[in-house]
Write a structure and sequence with these properties.
The protein is mainly alpha-helical. It has a single domain, classed as Rhodopsin 7-helix transmembrane proteins (Rhopdopsin 7-helix transmembrane proteins). About 70% of the residues lie in helices and about 0% in strands. It is built from eleven helices and two strands; from the N terminus they run ααααααββααααα. The protein has a two-stranded antiparallel sheet with strand order 1-2. α2 runs parallel beside α5, α4 packs across α8 and α9 crosses α10. The longest helix is centred in the middle third of the chain and has 38 residues.
């Protein structure tokens, strides 16, 4: 497809290709000018509301400030910023040109790119954290702390910014089409192909390899020697957190893999201009954005703490036993006085390594 096509943004296939025969839609296309913007706005609304809720509960409740949840917090921030660019892209699709000027074009493209990479990098770090928590629960205690997690998260954002420097440099409003795009220098086809390889390796397949390796090592270690360290409650908590992270990664891969596969196919072959292919193209792009809507839903279904915190914020939880500092405290309300006397001892255990593993 033409690298100067009017439908270009970092999360579309068009800006990564140099082919001039793929998916050129007329400006009057009903799908592009009406249906796609509507879907973009719906995805934006769902993604913003869900991830804003995640950010709020993690910052609001003390017990939610665990190592895993710090990475989830950064993933939610990335998803929120990712969603903020959708109204701009929806407007461009609807009116077939970019009305916001050069500064906003570069800003939207940059934020879009940074958070696209930040998402996969956060999932990679979460998978590495799962490996340390499950396979090396004692040795990794000094590293699996909220302060370290915040430092690592800062590094992830910085690295993501460096990765998208080509977008920061070359993104601008195109003179020919008046659309926001990446304006590659000559030879355009070489730059476009290099960018596809660059983003695919650093932004998906490379991190995915690390993620798969982490869980492969977890399986091998557990099956070969067994994990006996720690209490039964802590091991159960680790399994639940690991399962949640695995499901989040799998959903991410399912949403983004078609996008990168179609990019690579388009790099190798000149795809025909057919209506079916146009539909596949739009489905793939929307699916990649829709991933940001899926994460808050997954947290609610897979984590009791997230579920209870969501219910409290949304005024769906009628009990009055959940305190601001501990969304799970209502479980102890029905305890006998003898059990209440034992709570301080349990708190000591709970505030240790096990707390950093509970979501």
């Amino acid at each position: 497809m033409d690298a100067n096509s009017p439908d270009i943004n970092l999360s579309s296939l068009i800006n990564m290709t140099g082919n001039e025969t793929l998916l050129k839609l007329p400006p009057s296309s009903l799908v592009r000018s009406v249906l796609i913007p509507i879907i973009y706005f719906l995805v934006c609304a769902l993604g913003l509301s869900g991830n804003t809720l995640v950010i709020y509960v993690v910052l609001r409740y003390a017990k939610m400030k665990t190592v895993t949840n710090i990475y989830i917090l950064n993933l939610a921030i990335a998803d929120v910023l990712f969603m903020l660019g959708l109204p701009f892209l929806a407007t461009q699709n609807a009116i077939s040109y970019w009305p916001f000027g050069s500064f906003w074009c570069r800003l939207v493209m940059t934020v879009d790119g940074i958070n696209q990479f930040t998402s996969i990098f956060c999932l990679t770090v979460m998978s590495m954290d799962r490996y340390l928590a499950v396979v090396h629960p004692i040795k990794s205690t000094k590293w699996r702390r909220p302060r370290v997690a915040k430092l690592i998260s800062t590094t992830v954002w910085t690295f993501s910014f460096l990765v998208v420097l080509p977008v920061i440099i070359f993104a601008d409003v195109q003179e020919n089409f008046q659309t926001c795009n990446i304006n590659w220098p000559e030879p355009i086809s070489i730059w476009s192909a290099a960018f596809i390889i660059y983003t695919s390796v650093l932004g998906f397949f490379g991190p995915l390899l690390v993620i798969c390796l982490c869980y492969l090592l977890i399986v091998i270690k557990v099956k070969s020697s067994g994990i006996r360290v720690g209490s039964t409650r802590r091991r159960r908590s680790e399994r639940k957190v690991t399962r949640m992270v695995v499901i989040i990664v799998v959903v991410f891969v399912l949403c983004w893999l078609p996008f990168y596969i179609l990019n690579i196919v388009n790099l190798i072959f000149i795809l025909p201009e057919e209506s079916a292919l146009v539909g596949i193209y739009f489905f793939v792009v929307i699916l990649s954005y829709a991933n940001s809507c899926a994460n808050p839903i997954l947290y609610g279904f897979l984590s009791d703490n997230f579920k209870q915190s969501f219910q409290k914020v949304l005024c769906l939880w009628k009990g009055n036993g959940i305190e601001d500092g501990d969304p799970t405290e209502h479980r102890h309300e029905k305890s006998s006085r003898v059990q209440e006397a034992m709570l301080p001892q349990r708190s000591i255990e709970f505030n240790g390594h096990m707390q950093t593993s509970k979501v």
